[in-house]
Amino acid sequence: MKYVIDSSVAFKWVVSEAHDGKARQLRAELRGALHDLLAPDVFPIELGHSLTRAERQGRVSTADGWSFWLSILGDNVQLHPSIPLMPRAYAISSRMRIGIYDCLYVALAEREGCEFITADDRLERNLQTHFPFIVALASLP
Q1: What's the number of CA atoms in the CB half-sphere (13 Å) around residue 81?
Q2: What CATH number has the domain spanning 2-139?
Q3: Structural contact between residues 98 and 41, judged by C-beta atoms closer than 8 angstroms
Q4: pLDDT at 26
Q5: What is the mean pLDDT of residues 55-81?
Q6: Nearest CA to 19 among 129, 120, 115?
Q7: Beta bridge partners of 135
Q8: 51 Cβ partners below 8 Å, 6+ apart?
Q9: In Å, how far are 1, 11, 139 from 75, measured between CA atoms?
């Protein structure tokens, strides 16, 4: 299967949080070549932001944060250029009043005809009605 994932899912690959087991299962399936995971090219930046914030909060050490970032980027999440996604992402962002970064993931999943898995409950709650291909990580078996 092919899925778009956001950094909220990948973050749970390395940091213990709610539903991290489901995220880690998805990672194991990626490593086992059961799935192709895609993301816009802002994914590494958003992931870095989340990990450095976790460092400031004392949830991970500085050494671990960088190591986690490298580990995730080594997992072959297929990055897609964000500029071609911008027209659609901008339209979604304007219409739905949701941040443009989140809308890049939605636009990519829409273009690729696949599900978008997120651990961002607010995003899922606000957009899933309009974009039924958005799947909450928590809902995975």
Answers
A1: 3
A2: 3.40.50.1010
A3: no
A4: 96
A5: 96
A6: 120
A7: 117
A8: 11, 14, 15, 60, 65, 66, 68, 69
A9: 16, 13, 23
What would the mean pLDDT of 26-38 be, rounded to a whole number?
95
- The sign of the CA dihedral 113, 117, 122, 128 is positive
Per-residue confidence (pLDDT) for residue 104, from 0 to 100: 98
DSSP-derived secondary structure letter, 131: -
pLDDT digits (tens, 9 = 90+) for 101-122: 999 999 999 999 999 999 999 9
Tell me how far apart the alpha carbons of residues 87 and 83 are, in angstroms, rounded to a whole number.
8
Report the run of H or E that residue 118 belongs to, with start and end: strand 115-118
Contacts of 59 (CB under 8 A, 6+ apart): 15
For the sheet with 78-80, list strands across it: 78-80, 36-40, 2-5, 115-118, 134-136
Q: Which long-range contacts (CB under 8 A, 24 or more apart) does 65-71 make?
A: 68/13, 68/14, 68/15, 69/44, 71/13, 71/14
Instruction: Say if residues 129 and 96 touch (Cβ distance below 8 Å).
Output: no
* Domain range summary for the chain, segments of one domain joined by +: 2-139
71 pLDDT band, cuts 50/70/90, is very high
